[in-house]
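Exercise 4. Each item below gives a protein and its sequence. For each, produce the structure-token representation.

Item: Acetyltransferase (GNAT) family protein (Streptomyces indicus).
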Amino acid sequence: MKIIACRAEDLGLLDAHLPSASAESHHAARFARQEAGESTYLLAWRDGLPVGHGEVRWHGCAAPEVRAAVARRIAPEAVTSGGPSVSGPTPASGCPEINGLAVAEHLRSQGIGTALIHAAEDLARARRLPAIGLGVDETNPRAAALYARLGYEALVPYVDRWSYVDRGGLRVECADACTFLVKRL
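Answer:
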């Protein structure tokens, strides 16, 4: 297995092997954010096929309650001590978000998610960031257990709100009860 940043030529395989429920590709949107310098879209590959993904959003989680909690917990001076060692945007909080972490269902519990998380943590460390975080849906105890084993601690509950247009053209509004978890690096 290898973990690499998404390339334009990967989008077709991603849509074929890890399709999204929306009419528009989530993969294309994540790749566009990467191209704009807002994130790094990591892909896990096995036997020439994409088997998992996760996006490191350098500006952190957008939820106001998460941003406020991170600002209280991550000292601003930790962000400025030494500055980032790699060019690119750095969140004011010093805590980027791992977003959209997913592994093909038939390949879960084989270390792919862990490898993606470690790769994201390595990218944050390379930028000298003091922490990294992610949200976990309260209905996903397996993921919560994995994140706890990897050293992530609960910071704040929040509602993750997002929407998409389904393949039938209908807008679907989603609101997931989550907890934002943080790991010091």
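Check: Residues 77-87 have pLDDT under 50 and may be disordered.
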